Amino acid sequence: MEFAKLSDEAEIVNLYKAVIESVNLTEVRLGWNIDIYPDATFINSAISKGEMCVIRDEGKIVAAAVINHSVNPEYADINWEIKGPRDRLATIHALAVLPQKQGNKTSYRMLSDIENYCRKSGDLAIHLDVIDTNTPAYKLYIRNGYKEVDRIKMFYDVVGTREFWMLERVL
What we know:
- This protein has one domain: 3-Layer(aba) Sandwich (Aminopeptidase), CATH 3.40.630.
- It has four helices and seven strands.
- It has helices at residues 9-23, 40-48, 106-120, 135-143; strands at residues 2-3, 52-57, 60-68, 89-97, 125-131, 147-156, 160-170.
- It has a seven-stranded mixed sheet with strand order 1-2-3-4-5-7-6, with helices on both faces.
- Strand 2 (52-57) and strand 3 (60-68) form a beta hairpin.
- Helix 1 (9-23) crosses helix 2 (40-48).
């Protein structure tokens, strides 16, 4: 895993476009829309802040995710095992793997690399949410040691108010 550079922006946008197109052909309804989220503004901001991480295969970006400490206000009401301080609780946003690379352990590698990075950075846990229709992502996290802490309704601009699994990985 490495952190993306601004020169990677177009390739990352194309990765998310491919994932959105692929997911929209399945029962998994992420609600992602490349014009709203994860859009070029979100991607550019994450790269500029040093939060966009990628995995390359033969020089091509095959996976992307954002790692930071930013969460929705609802996270404060969850009964997490590790409650803080907030700046020691990492969050993964917009984890995506190129459709051609799904099923070959790229997502496992990405999670492992993110967890190792977070440990080295002094984070105590990773907290994240998964929209209730994204069963493949939920299963991925559970198989990798994340625990379901709660299931709540939460608002995001791109999907409105929906139900989300709230997951935690104690580092």
